C-alpha cells in the first residue's frame, strides 16, 4: 500500500486529494495536511468583503468531507521535508505541527511514498512597512485574501458607508500593496464591487475611488495583458479595463510600489522614479505572495532547502530556471509535469511551484526597485495542475509508468476568469475573460502571443450568472457531493 | 438622460479622457435579460472549448 501526502487543502491540493481518494483511495492511503479546519471558495470572498455574503456561505468544514471520502485529515501545518529519510531510516517523511484536532503545537513525522506540495502562498504583508505582519493585514488597511479578512473588510466598509450616509466624503484606495504583487484580479473585482455597493446605497457622489497597481498598464493582470476580438477590432485588455474604470468615474495609479502604509496614507514609488503619497479613508491592499517557509533536510540532517526551493520559497519543479533576459523567454521554460527533478516522488502544484520567471515584461524604477506583477496561478490552472499530478501519481502507483503520465503546463493551457463587477440577479455584472494559452507564445501566435479564437472578453449580466453558478458548483464539487466529478476544473 | 450624460464625469486630459465610454444602448445590453441569455450560452460554449483544449 502506498501513501500519498498532500500538503495544503486549497483549490489545487483539495482537487488532487479528491481525485486520488476516488481513484486509489480504497487500496492506498491519502493524507491531507492543512492548517485550516474550513475550506474556503476564495473567489467569493469578494462578496463577503462588501457584505453581500457571509463567511458560512463561502466555507465548509473539511473534516466530515474527508472522513466520508476516506481521506486522513490532519489539521496541521507542514514544517519540513526529509526526502531522503534520516540516519535511522531511508523512508522519506515530512514533519507537521498541529493547529487543531486537540493536538495544537504537537509535532509529528509522517512518512510518504509520494508528496504533493500544494501549500499555496504565505501572505507577505510584512514586505511593506505598515501593511501588516506575516499572514495578517495591519491596522491601516484591509484584505480579502481569506474569509476572515473579507469579513473584517466588510465591517470597515460598513463604517465608511455610515459616514457617507451622514454626509461625510470618503476616499477608497484599492489595489496592490507592493511592487511584486500578483492577484490583481482580486483587487479588480473588489474595487468594482465596492463601487457597485456604494452606487446601490445612492452614495456614489460622496466616494472618491482610486485603483493603485504595480501593473504598468491597466489590464496587465500579471500576464502581460491579453488581446481579444470585439467590435471588429483586436482590442487590448488595456482598452477594455480603462473603459470599465473610466465609465464608473474611478481613477488609477499605475506602476506603483507602495513602500509605506500609515494611518490614512500610503507612500509609493512609481516606475518613473517619483515618490508620491495617496490619502485614504478605506484601503484594501493585496500583499505580495511568498512560499510558506518549508525547510528541507538531507539524510544527515544537513539543510537542503536551497536545493528544493527557490529563494522566494516556492518549490522547484521541471521548469527551466536558467536566468535569461525577457527577449529569450520561451513557453518551454514553464513546467509540464510539476515534478521536482531531484526527488521524483515530490510534486508542486498551484501557487506552491516556483515559476521560471514572471510573465509580464520585467520593469523597475530608476532607483532599481522592481515594479511588476508576478505570475497568477490560482483558480482554474491550479485545479488543472492538481488533477494532472493526481493522474500521474495514480499511474505511477499502479505501475503504468515510472514517469509522470500527465502534464499541466501554463504554456499549454488556457484560463477562464469571471471577474465580478457587482452582485445582483438582474443588476449584477461581471467580466468574462478567456485566455489561451496563459503563457504567451509569440512564435506560434505572432503579434499578441495568444490564440485570438480562444482569447475573449466581455462584461454583462450573463457573466455574473456564471460567476454565481460557479460559486455553488465549486462548493458542491469541493464537498464531493453526488456528480462532483462532472463539474470540470 | 441626455445623449452625453454618460461622459459628463470625464475630466479633459485626465487618464480617463483617453478611454472608451459605453453609451446608453451598450449599457442596456449588459443587463438585458434576453440578450444576456444568448450571451450566457455563448460564454459557456466558449469556456467549455477552452477547458477541453487545456486538459492533457
Question: Can you tag this structure with a few keywords?
Answer:
heterodimer, A: 489 residues, alpha/beta, FAD/NAD(P)-binding domain, eight-stranded mixed beta sheet, four-stranded parallel beta sheet, B: mainly alpha, 2 helices
Question: If you had to describe this structure to a student in words, what would you say it looks like?
Answer:
- The complex is a heterodimer of chains A (489) and B (56).
- By secondary structure, chain A is an alpha/beta fold.
- Chain A has a domain at 3-123 and 291-397: FAD/NAD(P)-binding domain.
- In chain A, 24% of the residues lie in helices and 25% in strands.
- In chain A, strands 1, 2, 5, 6, 7, 8, 22 and 23 form an eight-stranded mixed β-sheet that branches. Chain A has a four-stranded parallel β-sheet with strand order 16-13-12-20, covered by helices on one side.
- In chain A, a hairpin with a 2-residue loop joins strand 14 and strand 15 (233-236).
- In chain A, helix 1 packs parallel to helix 9 (380-397).
- Chain A is globular.
- The two termini of chain A are 28 Å apart.
- The model of chain A has no long low-confidence stretch (mean pLDDT 96).
- The longest helix of chain B is centred in the C-terminal third of the chain and has 22 residues, at 33-54.
- Chain B has a domain at 18-54.
- Helices cover 54% and strands 0% of the residues of chain B.
- Chain B is built from two helices and no strands.
- Chain B is elongated.
- Chain B has 56 residues and is an all-alpha fold.
- The chains are: A alpha/beta (489), B mainly alpha (56).
Amino acid at each position: 500500500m502506498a501513501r500519498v501526502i498532500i500538503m495544503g487543502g486549497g483549490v489545487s491540493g483539495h482537487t488532487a486529494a479528491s481525485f486520488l481518494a476516488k481513484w486509489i483511495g480504497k487500496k492506498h492511503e491519502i493524507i491531507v495536511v492543512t492548517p485550516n479546519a474550513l475550506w474556503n471558495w476564495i473567489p467569493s470572498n469578494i462578496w463577503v468583503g462588501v457584505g453581500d455574503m457571509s463567511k458560512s456561505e463561502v466555507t465548509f468544514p473539511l473534516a466530515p468531507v474527508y472522513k466520508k471520502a476516506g481521506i486522513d485529515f490532519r489539521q496541521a501545518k507542514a514544517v519540513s521535508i526529509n526526502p531522503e529519510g534520516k540516519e535511522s531510516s531511508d523512508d522519506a517523511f515530512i514533519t507537521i505541527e498541529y493547529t487543531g484536532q486537540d493536538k495544537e503545537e504537537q509535532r509529528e513525522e509522517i512518512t510518504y511514498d509520494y508528496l504533493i506540495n500544494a501549500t499555496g502562498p504565505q501572505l507577505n504583508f510584512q514586505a511593506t512597512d505598515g501593511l501588516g505582519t506575516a499572514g495578517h493585514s495591519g491596522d491601516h488597511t484591509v484584505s480579502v485574501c481569506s474569509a476572515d479578512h473579507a469579513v473584517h473588510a466588510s465591517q470597515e466598509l460598513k463604517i465608511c458607508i455610515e459616514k457617507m450616509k451622514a454626509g461625510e466624503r470618503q476616499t477608497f484606495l484599492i489595489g496592490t500593496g507592493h511592487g511584486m504583487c500578483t492577484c490583481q484580479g482580486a483587487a479588480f473585482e473588489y474595487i468594482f464591487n465596492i463601487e457597485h455597493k456604494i452606487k446601490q446605497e445612492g452614495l456614489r457622489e460622496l466616494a472618491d475611488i482610486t485603483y493603485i497597481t504595480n501593473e504598468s498598464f491597466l489590464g496587465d493582470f500579471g500576464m502581460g495583458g491579453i488581446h481579444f476580438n470585439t467590435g471588429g477590432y483586436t482590442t487590448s485588455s488595456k482598452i477594455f479595463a480603462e473603459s470599465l474604470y473610466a465609465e464608473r468615474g474611478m481613477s488609477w495609479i499605475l506602476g506603483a510600489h507602495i513602500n509605506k502604509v500609515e494611518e490614512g496614507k500610503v507612500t509609493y514609488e512609481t516606475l518613473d522614479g517619483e515618490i508620491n503619497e495617496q490619502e485614504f479613508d478605506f484601503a484594501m491592499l493585496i500583499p505580495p505572495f511568498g512560499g510558506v517557509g518549508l525547510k528541507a533536510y538531507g539524510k544527515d540532517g544537513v539543510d537542503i532547502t536551497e536545493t528544493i526551493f527557490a529563494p522566494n520559497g516556492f518549490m522547484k519543479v521541471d521548469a527551466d530556471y536558467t536566468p535569461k533576459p525577457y527577449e529569450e523567454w520561451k513557453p518551454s521554460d514553464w513546467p509540464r509535469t510539476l515534478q521536482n527533478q531531484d526527488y521524483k516522488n515530490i510534486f508542486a502544484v498551484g501557487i506552491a511551484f516556483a515559476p521560471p520567471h514572471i510573465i509580464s515584461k520585467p520593469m523597475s524604477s530608476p532607483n532599481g526597485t522592481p515594479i511588476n506583477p508576478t505570475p497568477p496561478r490560482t483558480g482554474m490552472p491550479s485545479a488543472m495542475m492538481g488533477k494532472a499530478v493526481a493522474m500521474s501519481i495514480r499511474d505511477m502507483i499502479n505501475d503504468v509508468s515510472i514517469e509522470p503520465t500527465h502534464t499541466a503546463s501554463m504554456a499549454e493551457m488556457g484560463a477562464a476568469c469571471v471577474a465580478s463587477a457587482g452582485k445582483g440577479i438582474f443588476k449584477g455584472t461581471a467580466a468574462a475573460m478567456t485566455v489561451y494559452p496563459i503563457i504567451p507564445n509569440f512564435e506560434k501566435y505572432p503579434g499578441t502571443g495568444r490564440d485570438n479564437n480562444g482569447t475573449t472578453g466581455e462584461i454583462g449580466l450573463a457573466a455574473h450568472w456564471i460567476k454565481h453558478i460557479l460559486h455553488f458548483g465549486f462548493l458542491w464539487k469541493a464537498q464531493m457531493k453526488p456528480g462532483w466529478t462532472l463539474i470540470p476544473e | 438622460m441626455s445623449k452625453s450624460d454618460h461622459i459628463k464625469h470625464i475630466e479633459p486630459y485626465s487618464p480617463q479622457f483617453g478611454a472608451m465610454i459605453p453609451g446608453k444602448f451598450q449599457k442596456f445590453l449588459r443587463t438585458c435579460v434576453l440578450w444576456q441569455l444568448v450571451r450566457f450560452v455563448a460564454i459557456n460554449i466558449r469556456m467549455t472549448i477552452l477547458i477541453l483544449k487545456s486538459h492533457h
